[in-house]
Amino acid sequence: MYKVSKYNIIENTEDGVLIYNTFSGCFLFVDNNKKNKIIDFLKNPESDIDFETLNNFLEAGFIIREDFDEIAELKKIYLSSKKNKDSLSIVVLASESCNFSCPYCFIKEKRGFNMKTFVYKSILNLIKKDIKRLKNLKIQIFGGEPLLNHRNNILFLKKLNNMIKKYNINKEVVIITNGYALNLKLFKEYLNEGCNNFQITLDGYPEIHNSLRYTETDKDTFKRIWNNINEIKKLDKNFKMTLRINFPELDKDKMIGFVDFLSKNFYKDERFQLYFRQIVDYRKDIKNLNICSKEDGIKNQFEYSLLYYKKAGIDKNKMAEYFMPKPISKWCDAGSENHYIIGADGLIFKCDVEIGGEEFGCGKLKDNGEVEIYSKTYHQKYSPYNRKKCKNCVLLPICQGGCAYSYKNTGKCFYTGDFIRKIMRDFHYNFNN
Ligand code: SF4
Ligand code: SF4
Question: Is the pLDDT of residue 189 over 60?
């Protein structure tokens, strides 16, 4: 009949109990009056309980039918998303050069050239080859700094739009830029070509940002990027702009003041989504920059997000979306068969932090759009379903084995049970009551 899900996390609080199911993403608070009854029911789902609670708990996945095999279902979701032939994800490294020289950039040993026109053409051929069976097409224009090749990007998008217009393809175009050159004129050109998703990175408050992100002639790049963002903000158009706020170890009081300033600037404007990330020394070669420990970084990133979303006037009902980790099909695209990061010369990579290093190139895009893969990469071979630790882990649905690169290089997990319990408590005390 019924059994308890393997993926419930139960956390007692002063005022009751929190239950979060990582498989369904459902989150529930039960107050002290009903707590014991619910806990007993979760120990024995065959016990007597009212019909409404039984139904709600089934729907939320806290209890499941006896014959439902959660792990088999998770594995199915994972494998089908890695091998999905209906979807194609392409990262176009429009320029492997940059106008900035951030000390921590994982592609700082840049190869230093813009994408050649024949490579854009080969990408179009690659899409054309599969066009009849494609349902989803995701294009991310990235670099280096992709706006250094702006004219060719726009030409590429025009040709792409023309090519797919008679097919029913769900297309998403994202541009990931440092924002320095993204003035209103350029922004509108991308928007006109169906690119309505932008990501810009700032490195903390102006003083820190300018010490890390500068050009040869401009030591106040924050000012220009900020002006660009605010000009764009005035547009009465729909788009999504993600601001990634990186932070090293810094003056926390100043950072909190900066978060407050950001929340006022973007108050109730949900076109702008902010997230905070510590700077990570992926290649273990950052000099002259203090970075936080992983533990402090995660703690701070959550604290800044909490502060931002509390003050930015975001609808309380949407808060769970921002805060509680969601069940996923895979951690990232690196292990997917139909995902290619295409270098400016057609060299193919699989993982974001390996781009630019020729030794990580795993294949080549030919002129006719065929992809020649030399050999499967470790991201493709990695599977949490081959690891006992992952198969027994309550976090598997929200992690799916995590980052293959981190696993190979550190063996560490991104999430821990303690961290998830902290998020549950923080979410409850800040937004859930
Ligand atoms: S990588 Fe770590 S957190 Fe993720 S499923 Fe495996 S053991 Fe759990
Ligand atoms: S494997 Fe890890 S580092 Fe590479 S793209 Fe995926 S999440 Fe990023």
Answer: yes
**pLDDT tens per residue, range 37-90:** 999 999 999 888 899 999 999 999 999 999 999 999 999 999 999 999 899 999
Number of continuous H segments (helices) and E segments (strands) in the chain: 16, 15
In a domain, residue 41? The reply is yes
Distance from C-alpha of 123 to C-alpha of 348, rounded to nearest angstrom: 11
Cα of 405 from ligand 1 centre, angstroms: 14
In a domain, 52, yes or no: yes
Nearest to 93 by CA among 345, 262, 263, 336: 345
Report pLDDT for 320.
73
Q: Is 420 in the pocket of ligand 1 (CB under 6 A)?
A: no
Cα 370 to averaged position of ligand 2 atoms, centre (Å): 24
Instruction: Say how many Å lie between the first and final Cα of the chain, rounded.
Output: 34
- Work out which ligand 1 atom sits closest to the CA atom of 384: 6
Tell whether 7 is covered by a domain: yes
- Alpha helix positions (H), 193-272: 206-212, 221-233, 252-265
* Prediction pTM value: 0.91
3-state percent helix, strand, coil for the chain, nearest multiple of 5: 40, 20, 40
For ligand 2, the distance from its centroid to the CA atom of residue 166, given in whole angstroms, is: 34
Number of domains in the chain: 1
Owner of token pair 């309505």: 196
Q: 10 lies in which domain range?
A: 2-68
Say if CB 150 and CB 182 are below 8 A apart: no
The whole-angstrom distance between residue 273's C-alpha and the CA centroid of its chain comes to 12
